[in-house]
Design brief:
alpha/beta, 17 strands, elongated, phosphoprotein, transferase, HATPase_dom, phosphorelay sensor kinase activity, HisK_dim/P_dom
């Protein structure tokens, strides 16, 4: 904007018209005092100032403007119709004007000068803006450098206080700073310590340096005092700023004692492993011998029992028909020998579970169909009802899993309520995880089988006892058994990488829950992975 200052409006008007025709915005003041007020409020690119004005003349206004920080660089063109002498022109320049024109003014010359000074003013303003921007950037960079220097000082203080050898490396790969511990391994702060010929890590480090990747390795470095090579963990990480690496920070951590201890431990583990393999082989041989011994012993023990039972029956039938008391004693003897025979058979079955066997896909529906035919007589006598859902095909040891179902169904029939037909329900679902209350999932890897009855049940506070060998919750005289059946089931389920549990309440029946993997190899793989 152009400011025209003249005490006569008739002089202002033609100048405004000329400038506005050439797209200049104009403003006017009719006194020096009014001009100063407007200059304080507004910014002007050129001021056209009449010299002779009442009150403050043009020279006084120019001198006042030169004291303003905002407008001191604004170009002033003086106009005068009277003061044409050299001393007035000189005063005009000395008071802050950049040109002095006498009236009458040639409009073309005035317009040319205004255009020139306006352009110079705009360039000057642009230059100031650039200078301010540059100064701001300089200040920002200076502040950043000061912060960086402070951080570097802090980093060096931290590295100096570390118990490890610590150092920094520039982006060019040259060492910038090392702490005091460095000189235990190298005499020169710019040269890496000497490494063992078999542990030359420098080539790998240079590859990581080029690719900007964190570097971690173990190497043996030579100690200057002892001239011995010791194991160190070497770790060098990049320090990033705005996504670019600005330097690297590294440490050498002494792990020699740990490494020696690990090697000693590995050696001991290797020796122990060999010993265990030998012992395991011996145990397998001994176990096989025990299996053979158990079979022979059970056979030899059952043979006398069979004779006891046979001769007891003969004595009772031939010689004691008229003696009820003697028959009662013999019946007890026959019952005890029968119970001992069952106990020997169950113990033999329990011992056989340690023998290795191979898993194979088993149709549980066919297995149960065949098994239930063994219970036809007792089911008929007790009017038992079996409700059987469709069961999946899973990996099992058929003979052993058959024994689990046999024991559970036998117990359900045995521990039925007096005068109430047993109802046994066998159902299954596919679940995601190996625990009793896992959610149903068609994509799961486990099968949950529930065998439920309406028998006498048991108090759940004894849950931990029922799967322990020889543990009984019921009177031997009321319910026959050896207390081994559920222990056998538990051992078989463990061998199948499964779970057996139960839910019950006295006189409210019982639920026995089996969790079995669908595919054994998959479960074994997961177990190995977890270990």
């Amino acid at each position: 904007m152009i400011l025209i200052v003249d005490d006569r409006p008739e002089n202002i008007l033609p100048l405004k018209k000329i400038l506005e025709l050439h797209n200049f915005q104009t403003d006017s003041a009719e006194s020096g005092e009014e001009a100063l007020k407007k200059i304080l409020k507004n910014s002007y690119s050129v001021i056209i100032m009449d010299v002779q004005m009442p009150g403050m003349d043009g020279f006084e206004v120019a001198e006042a403007i030169s004291g303003f920080g905002k407008a001191k660089d604004t170009p002033i063109i003086f106009l005068s119709a009277v003061n044409k002498e050299k001393r007035f022109i000189t005063k005009g320049y000395s008071s802050g004007g950049i040109d002095y024109l006498t009236k009458p003014v040639d409009p073309d010359i005035l317009l040319l000068k205004v255009k020139t000074f306006n352009k110079l003013f705009e360039q000057q303003q642009e230059l100031k803006t650039i200078q301010h921007s540059l100064q701001y950037e300089i200040d920002i960079r200076k502040k950043a450098q000061e912060e960086l220097a402070g951080r570097m000082q802090e980093l060096r203080f931290i590295l100096e206080s570390l118990p490890q050898v610590a150092f920094t490396i520039g982006v060019d790969g040259k060492i910038e700073f090392v702490n005091e511990h460095w000189f235990q391994l190298s005499e020169d702060a710019t040269i890496f310590p000497e490494s063992h010929p078999e542990d030359d890590f420098y080539n790998n480090w240079e590859t990581h340096l080029k690719n900007g990747l964190e570097f971690t390795t173990e190497a043996r470095l030579k100690h200057l005092d002892t001239q011995e090579y010791k194991y160190f963990l070497i770790k060098i990480i990049p320090i990033l700023q705005n996504g670019s690496t600005i330097r690297w920070v590294g440490t050498f951590t002494d792990i020699h004692q740990q490494k020696m201890a690990n090697e000693l431990l590995e050696h001991k583990v290797e020796l122990r492993t060999r010993e265990l393999l030998v012992k395991n082989s011996e145990l397998e041989t001994t176990n096989h011998e025990l299996q053979q011994f158990a079979w022979v012993v059970s056979h030899d023990l059952k043979e006398p029992l069979r004779k006891i039972q046979t001769f007891s029956h003969l004595i009772k039938d031939k010689y004691l028909k008229e003696n009820p008391e003697a028959i009662s004693y013999l019946n007890r003897s026959i019952s005890s020998s029968a119970r001992m025979s069952r106990l020997i058979s169950d113990l033999l079955d329990y011992s056989r579970l340690s023998v290795k066997a191979h898993f194979q896909p088993t149709d549980l529906n066919l297995l149960l169909e065949d098994l239930l035919s063994d219970f036809d007589e007792i089911m008929l006598s007790k009017k038992a009802v079996i409700q059987l859902d469709k069961l999946p095909i899973i990996d099992t040891i058929p003979s052993q899993i058959r024994q689990v179902f046999q024991n559970l169904i036998s117990n359900a029939l045995k521990f039925s309520k007096e005068g109430m037909p047993p109802v046994i329900t066998i159902s299954s679902t596919i679940i995601a995880e190996k625990f009793v209350d896992a959610e149903v999932s068609e994509e799961g890897h486990f099968c949950r089988i529930v065998i439920e009855d309406n028998g006498i049940g048991f108090d759940e506070k004894f849950l931990d006892r029922i799967f322990v060998i020889f543990q009984r919750l019921n009177n031997l005289n009321t319910y026959e058994g050896t207390g081994i059946g559920l222990a056998i089931a538990k051992k078989i389920m463990d061998k199948h990488n499964g779970i057996i549990s139960a839910r019950s309440a006295e006189n409210h029946g019982a639920q026995f829950i089996l969790i079995l993997p669908l595919v054994q190899e998959q479960v074994l793989t997961e177990i190995r992975t977890e270990n």
